[in-house]
């Protein structure tokens, strides 16, 4: 797949892996290799990303998030509620949940 790299893009596909969640000091070539096979989703389409889809994204602080599953999307607050495991539940050991605002991607 060929695409123009966008520093503020989210990438999604239907399934994911258990690799390290956040990568610091990652360069553009490494990001390209990590999103191979993923589809770049333009910001206006983010509210339409299906629940439980696996996404990867680059935060505005330069950290690359490699492993996140969409648990919910709040269009009014322009944010995702994400989880590190597709089937994780609150309280599961080792499972992380977090919010990220669209403006932070």
State the secondary-structure class: mainly beta
- Please give the count of helices: 1
Estimated helix fraction: under 10%
H and E string: EEHEEEEE
Overall 3D shape:
globular
Poorly predicted regions are 1-9, 12-19
Number of domains: 1
Please state the average pLDDT score.
78
Radius of gyration: 13 Å
Report strand %: 25-35%
Our measurement of the CA-to-CA distance between the termini, rounded to an integer number of angstroms, reads: 22 Å
**Number of E-type strands:** 7
For the largest beta-sheet, the strand count, sense and barrel status come to:
7 strands, antiparallel
Question: What do you see in this structure?
Answer:
The chain is mainly beta and 105 residues long. The protein has one domain (10-104). It is 7% helix and 33% strand. The protein is built from 1 helix and 7 strands; from the N terminus they run ββαβββββ. A hairpin with a 5-residue loop joins strand 4 (54-58) and strand 5 (64-74). The longest helix has 7 residues, at 28-34. Residues 1-9 and 12-19 have low confidence and may be disordered.
């Amino acid at each position: 797949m060929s695409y123009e790299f966008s520093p503020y893009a989210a990438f999604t596909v239907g399934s994911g892996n258990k690799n390290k969640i956040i990568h610091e000091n990652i360069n553009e070539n490494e990001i390209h290799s990590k999103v191979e096979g993923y589809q770049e989703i333009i910001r206006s389409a983010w509210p339409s990303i299906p629940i439980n889809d696996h996404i990867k994204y680059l935060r505005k602080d330069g950290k690359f998030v490699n492993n996140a599953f969409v648990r919910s999307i709040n269009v009014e607050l322009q944010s995702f509620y994400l989880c590190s495991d597709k089937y994780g539940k609150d309280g599961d050991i080792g499972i992380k949940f977090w919010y990220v605002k669209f403006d932070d991607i």
